[in-house]
From TrEMBL:
The gene is smpB. Required for rescue of stalled ribosomes mediated by trans-translation. Binds to transfer-messenger RNA (tmRNA), required for stable association of tmRNA with ribosomes. tmRNA and SmpB together mimic tRNA shape, replacing the anticodon stem-loop with SmpB. tmRNA is encoded by the ssrA gene; the 2 termini fold to resemble tRNA(Ala) and it encodes a 'tag peptide', a short internal open reading frame. During trans-translation Ala-aminoacylated tmRNA acts like a tRNA, entering the A-site of stalled ribosomes, displacing the stalled mRNA. SUPFAM superfamilies: Small protein B (SmpB). Gene3D superfamilies: 2.40.280.10. This is SsrA-binding protein. GO terms for molecular function: RNA binding. One of its GO terms (biological process) is trans-translation. It comes from Erysipelothrix inopinata.
Length: 147
């Protein structure tokens, strides 16, 4: 498994509850750009529409050797999930107020897969608390290392 792109902001802005792995429906030039590492997940999110999962706002740069049949850089792309997974994501999003965020894109045997998660948004004080805990743990590890 080779990680191509990671959404680091997701771990900073959300509490990650449950993770899923989804396939993606891509064209030839899209997968070639992803293999080159020219993809960004920064502003992207996932929505459920008519029983299908779609990723919106994901940026895949155009392939350099692509001709006039090159793809659009920012477009809605379909995610491949089982029906029960889509139903679980949809219920959590509608009823419980969760958000579905992409975590990373990785390659498995030449195929692009996306790790997505059910997440709850963090407030500013939550972010400060997490940063404080990390800092304290770092200090404890340094002190333990000296002894």
């Amino acid at each position: 498994m080779v990680v191509v792109a990671k959404n680091r902001k997701a771990y900073h802005d959300y509490f990650i509850e449950d993770e899923f792995e989804a396939g993606m429906v891509l064209t030839g030039t899209e997968i070639k750009s992803i293999r080159d590492g020219k993809v960004q997940l920064k502003e992207s999110f996932i929505s459920i529409k008519d029983g299908e999962a779609w990723i919106k706002g994901m940026h895949i740069a155009q392939y350099d050797q692509g001709n006039r049949f090159n793809h659009e850089e920012v477009a809605d792309r379909k995610l491949l999930l089982h029906d029960y997974e889509i139903e679980k994501l949809d219920k959590a999003e509608r009823i419980k107020g969760y958000t579905i965020v992409p975590l990373d894109i990785h390659l498995v045997r030449g195929r692009a897969k996306m790790k997505i998660a059910l997440a709850k948004g963090k407030h500013l004080f939550d972010k400060r608390q997490v940063e404080k805990e990390r800092s304290m743990n770092r200090d404890i590890q340094k002190a333990m290392k000296r002894y």
